[in-house]
Write a structure and sequence with these properties.
Layout lengths: L15 H7 L7 E5 L4 E5 L8 H4 L12 H19 L1
Antiparallel strand pairs: 1-2
């Protein structure tokens, strides 16, 4: 167990041994989660930066391209099916 103090600016220093144990470097973003009588700090996961070229076409569609009207009809049909399921 570590005891730390809250500064006048509302900051705390996470001890070096804990930062090293979790691999937290300067600039690490943390998520603060309220836990009733305390808080939990978790590292914000970093996602690799991607571009449209990296992900475009990852879900290949083998067929005639759908029109906007086709897509709107499919959405309408899905909404109607859900409506009937709940009514």
């Amino acid at each position: 167990m570590e005891i730390i103090k809250l500064s006048n600016e509302g900051q705390v220093i996470i001890p070096e041994v804990l930062r090293k144990a979790y691999g937290w470097e300067v600039g690490q973003e943390l998520i603060l989660i309220e836990m009733g009588d305390g808080i939990l700090l978790k590292p914000k996961k970093l996602f690799p930066e991607t571009s449209l070229d990296d992900v475009a076409g990852c879900l290949k569609y083998q067929g005639k391209p759908k029109t906007l009207e086709d897509m709107e009809d499919a959405i309408r049909q899905g909404a109607e099916e859900l409506w009937h399921d709940y009514s």
